[in-house]
Structures are given as C-alpha cells and as structure tokens.
Amino acid sequence: MFFSVEAHAQTVLDDYKIPMPDIELMSDEAYNAISTEYKEVPFGDESLSYKIRLPNDWIKETEAGLGSFSVSSKVFGNIARFHGAPKFTGNRSRFTIQVIGLDYQLTAEQWFLQHLLANGYSIQGFRMIDETEAEALFVMIDNSISYVVRASAHISGKSVVLAQHFLPIEWWDDSKVSQAHIVSSFSLLKKEQVFVEEMKFFHFLDVTELQYPASWEMRASPLRSIDNMNVQILNVVSRTNSKYGGGVKFLNGKIDVNLVSVFVADSLEVEKQAYKESFIKAGLVIQDSLNVEEKFVLNKQFSSFKIEAFEAIDTKNTVLDYEVWLASFSAGDYYYFVSLLTPSRDDDFYVWSRNTQTYKLILKLIKPLDESIVER
User: Fold this and answer.
1) How many helices and strands in the chain, by DSSP H and E?
2) Rounded Cα distance, 293 and 287, in Å
C-alpha cells in the first residue's frame, strides 16, 4: 500500500492560532433587558435543541422559508434563521443555525478548522472552548457582499451544529458588541455523547481488549508467542489507479499496538528505545520533537503513561512530511506501546485530524482484562 495524500502547504497552526479580538461587552443584565430568549426543539430532535438571546427587534423566519430538513454529511440542513432590523442603507444582519453530519470522530476544533480552510475564509480569530465547542471570527463574501462572521461550532452526537452571525462589514464597528453577545448566548441544551462510527473489538487473548472504528482495517500479526503481541489498525482508501492497474489500496495512516511481556524486557525505557529504533529500520528519519497539546484519558489500571511526537520523513517518499506519535505505559505483566504514523498536519489537516482523533479514542478505550492484572 502507498500513502496517497497530496502534499500542499497549509501552515495550519500559524494560520489559526489567532486570538479572538478583545471586545468589551455590556453586562448580562443590560443585554438581557434589550433582548429576547428563544428556546427551540427543532423538528422534535432533542439533540438539536438550543437557546439563544437576540435583540428585541430581530425577526425569526418561518420554517416554511427554510426548505426541507435532513441531516447529511454532505450538505448543511437549516435549523433556524433570524434577521436583524432593516437599515436605512446597506444590508441586514442575519443569524443562522445549521446542522451537518459527521463521518468520523472529530473535535469541534478539528471540524471547524477544516471547514474554514476548505472555504478559504480569512480567519481573524479562533479559540477552542472544549472538545465539543469552538468559536471563530472570519471574513467572507456572499453574493458580492462582504461580511464579518462570528460563529460557533458545537458537536452533539453524530452531528455538528454551526451557529453563525453574518454582519455586513460596514456595520462591524457599530455592531460588534451585539454580535459577540448573540453568538456567546447560543448553546445546545442536550448535547449527546456517542461514537460517530460503529466500534469493533479485538482481544489479545485474555490480556487486553481493544476497540477501533469500523472504517479502519485490522491487521493482526500471527501469534507466535505471548511475550510479544502486535496488531496494526490502518486508515486505507481504495482507488482506481491506472499506473498500478485496477483497484489499489492507499494508506492514509497507521496505528500499531504492541504488548511486550515484562519477563522478556529489561525495562519500559529500554524497550521503548528499541521500539523507536524500529522506525529507523523501516525507513523513517525521525526529526524534531513536537508538542502534544491534546489531553489523553486512559484506563485507570494503566501506569507510567508517556506520550511523545516527532516530525519524520520517509526515505522512500520524500514528497510528504509525517508525524510519529508514541505512547508507552504498563499494566500487569505487560508493557504497552501504541504508535501513530500519519501525514503531518501541514500536509493534510483533514487526514491528520481523523488519524490523531482515532489514536486518542483507541488509547481511551484500550483496557487490560481483569484476569491479566496481577501484583508484581
């Protein structure tokens, strides 16, 4: 299999780590006095229920004007639309609430950045609130009109709800405080927490249980010894390629899970160093260390957890840059090494996001079975 991602410069971290502008807001009491609260359960779907406060002179569009509703991962479905008061000159502000389905497990930050980058919006500010919510300020042109848009993305269940305030750029100075209040007042009332994909199970004998998304492929090495057990979980895509003939599977990411018995290893650190050297033998050149800002949650029975990440290049494919992540920990009679090989975030942010989020999910769900935990 071959890595299929096309290299293209997207200095993602440089582009989006722009702080949101510092806007002095009025007090909650003052804003509440000039606004009206809306609470809705759109189309009877509790996972989409929301509340928002809008200025008293804003008008809610009837559902008849929104068209048919459905949740798809390809196009946005319209939940609600509000319009600001007409101006003597210029265009009106509007606030929209839309929903789109997720194909894979992503954070709100990852999804929102992909959305902004794919549409080429000029990002003026961005912040992650938590894994299910992110906010951005950006400039866009719609029907030849320039808008400053303040928006928040919220993950609920298998969907993303996108709330956006479109402010004509000529009204930015006069209305930026109101815009900030409107967007910050929006929230989902009943966020659902579910797996986006079906999860599959794999067992290392009676030692460890592993879960992984159904869209990834499992490759288990033949079990020759219980002292060293390994599986690979692959992000692959099938494509027709005239160069190689017929259908070809391309590799977009790889997660390795290795269990090494403490009875055949000198120590966790020694074994980890040997594991790193295996990357070099496979043709990877490990380069600078990377900061890992993600928060990892592991089963409480694991100990000695450490996560490292590195930039890397493949001597067989110098077009792409890669990242190697390596987690090491222990439980019972085994040392655990879980690694990720992925195209770098700057080569393809979408693939990188899917790979790293799957990696975090696998680490969160892997667990030693009770029968394997003994005091040493």
Assistant:
1) 6, 21
2) 19
Instruction: Give the separation between CA 11 and CA 169, rounded to whole angstroms.
Output: 27
How far is residue 212's CA from residue 330's CA, in Å, rounded to a whole number?
A: 20
Q: What is the pLDDT of residues 152-175, one digit of tens each?
A: 999 999 999 999 999 999 999 999
Give the phi and the psi of residue 36 in degrees, each rounded to 5. Answer: -120, 135
pLDDT level of residue 237 (50, 70, 90 thresholds): confident
Q: How far is C-alpha 85 from the geometric centre of its chain's CA atoms? A: 36
- The more confidently predicted of residues 111 and 63 is 111
Q: What is the CATH number of domain 199-372?
A: 2.60.120.1690
Contact present, 54 and 82 (Cβ < 8 Å): yes
Q: Which CATH number is 10-188's, of 1.10.1760.20, 3.40.1000.10, 2.60.120.260, 3.80.10.10?
A: 3.40.1000.10
Q: How far apart are CA 308 and CA 82, in angstroms?
A: 47
Strands 284-289 and 35-40, by their bridges, are: unpaired
Q: Any idea where the domains of the chain sit in the sequence?
A: 10-188, 199-372
Q: How far is residue 297's CA from residue 365's CA, in Å, rounded to a whole number?
A: 9
The C-alpha atoms of residue 249 and residue 3 are separated, in whole angstroms, by 9
* CA dihedral over 196, 160, 189, 129, signed as positive or negative: positive
Max Cα-Cα span within the chain: 80
What are the backbone dihedrals phi and psi of residue 100, each rounded to the nearest 5 degrees, phi first?
-145, 145
For CA atoms 355, 358, 364, 370, the dihedral sign is negative
85 vs 79: CA distance, rounded Å: 21
